[in-house]
């Protein structure tokens, strides 16, 4: 039976986030994997030990691969998607939760309102509810 908690939705949505970036990215699979890893390093979104292969990137985009995807890869895919002129949107609630989770992990926000205001206009509606859930999840983790 699938879990319905916020973080479970994030993990289920991560492969779709990676897959959407793969679909919109320009280049073959190995080049896209290189772009993802190098962007993570340059933008300080993580420090991949190695650059993944195109096959690894494809495996991360498979449904059910959420637990295998390193956080740096998901954060970087979200970072790149948000900047695309194509203005992509999440295609499911789980994917929207993954986008919102990564949005909060990629930047430091004082409160939910500033996190929402910083979103590009086209994402404010689709990420409104997931961003609230992500903020609650983030605040809950600070209590530990």
What oligomeric arrangement do these chains adopt?
single chain
Beta-strand residue percentage: under 5%
Rounded to an integer, what's the Rg over CA atoms?
14 Å
The coarse silhouette is globular
Mean pLDDT: 93
The low-confidence runs, each spanning 5 or more residues with pLDDT under 50, are none
Helix content: 55-70%
Task: Determine the number of helices (DSSP H or I, runs of at least 4 residues).
Answer: 7
Structural class of the helix and strand makeup?
mainly alpha
Sheet with most strands: none
Structure summary, number of beta strands: 0
- The N- to C-terminal Cα distance equals 27 Å
Order of SSEs: HHHHHHH
Describe the fold and architecture.
Helices cover 67% and strands 0% of the residues. It is an all-alpha fold. The radius of gyration is 14 Å and the shape is globular. It starts with 5 loop residues before the first helix and ends with a helix. 36% of the residues are buried.
Descriptive key words:
144 residues, 7 helices
How would you briefly describe this protein structure?
This protein has 144 residues and is mainly alpha-helical.
Question: Secondary-structure blueprint of this entry?
Answer:
Layout: H1 6-24, H2 29-42, H3 54-60, H4 71-83, H5 93-106, H6 112-118, H7 121-142
Helix pairs in contact: 1-4, 1-5, 2-3, 2-4, 4-5, 5-7, 6-7
């Amino acid at each position: 039976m699938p879990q319905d908690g916020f973080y479970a939705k994030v993990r289920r949505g991560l492969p779709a986030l990676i897959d959407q970036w793969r679909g919109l990215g320009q280049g073959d699979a190995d080049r896209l994997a290189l772009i993802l890893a190098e962007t993570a390093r340059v933008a300080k979104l993580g420090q991949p030990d190695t650059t993944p292969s195109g096959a690894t990137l494809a495996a991360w985009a498979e449904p059910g691969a959420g637990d295998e995807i390193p956080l740096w890869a998901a954060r970087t895919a979200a970072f790149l998607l948000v900047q695309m002129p194509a203005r992509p949107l999440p295609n499911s609630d789980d994917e929207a939760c993954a986008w919102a989770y990564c949005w909060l992990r990629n930047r430091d926000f004082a409160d939910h309102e500033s996190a929402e205001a910083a979103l590009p206009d086209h994402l404010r509606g689709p990420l409104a509810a997931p961003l609230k859930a992500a903020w609650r999840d983030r605040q809950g983790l600070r209590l530990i």
